[in-house]
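lol forgot to send this yesterday, sorry. struct tokens for the thing we talked abt
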């Protein structure tokens, strides 16, 4: 991907995050990018292709951010809290209709997201659970595979549940409550003290 194309994908992603996907035509997107529709079509074949490239770029960015969070964290509790901050901040930027639009109108792009969650996020969650047990911060009586599956499935539920669109409650608030429920359920007494320190 050339620097020019990367710049275009970053800007188009921001447009989708702000306005959603379905409501925007390629004319709208080109206009907001400050380029002609003909120029836009030099980089993508159609809107579906543009959405897919934006999703792939975001997944690549997410993987880098997850690796960075792992590198700077001194223990499993700090690591999972750093993960939650990354996810929470992203959700604050997302137009609530995006996940519905992806599922209904861009299933290929949606499948890429689900694959990322079902593989990368699931494995990162399992790794964090094992690390927390090894460090004596998480309960050692957990079924790691099952807890990881439950947590990822519950978080995925946020994206598939359209109730929050009309609830007035931000997606990031739903996520934070789920995260808080998760981490306080997996931590032992020592871990809870550490959680309270990090979140105070």
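and heres what i got for the seq, position by position
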């Amino acid at each position: 991907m050339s620097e020019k194309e990367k710049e275009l994908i970053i800007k188009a992603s921001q447009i989708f995050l702000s306005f959603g996907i379905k409501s925007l035509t390629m004319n709208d997107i080109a206009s907001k990018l400050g380029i002609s529709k003909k120029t836009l079509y030099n980089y993508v074949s159609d809107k579906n292709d543009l959405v897919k490239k934006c999703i792939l770029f975001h997944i690549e960015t997410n993987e880098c951010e997850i690796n960075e969070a792992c590198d700077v964290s001194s223990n499993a509790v700090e690591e999972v809290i750093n993960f939650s901050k990354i996810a929470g901040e992203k959700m604050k930027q997302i137009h609530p209709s995006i996940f519905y639009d992806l599922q209904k109108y861009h299933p290929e792009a949606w499948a890429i997201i689900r694959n990322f969650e079902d593989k990368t996020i699931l494995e990162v969650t399992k790794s964090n659970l094992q690390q927390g047990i090894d460090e004596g911060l998480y309960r050692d009586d957990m079924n790691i595979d099952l807890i990881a599956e439950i947590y990822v499935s519950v978080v995925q539920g946020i994206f598939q549940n359209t109730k929050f669109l009309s609830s007035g409650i931000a997606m990031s608030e739903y996520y934070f409550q789920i995260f808080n429920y998760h981490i306080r359920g997996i931590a032992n007494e020592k871990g809870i003290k550490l959680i309270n320190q990090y979140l105070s």
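The chain has eleven helices and no strands. anyway ping me if u want another try
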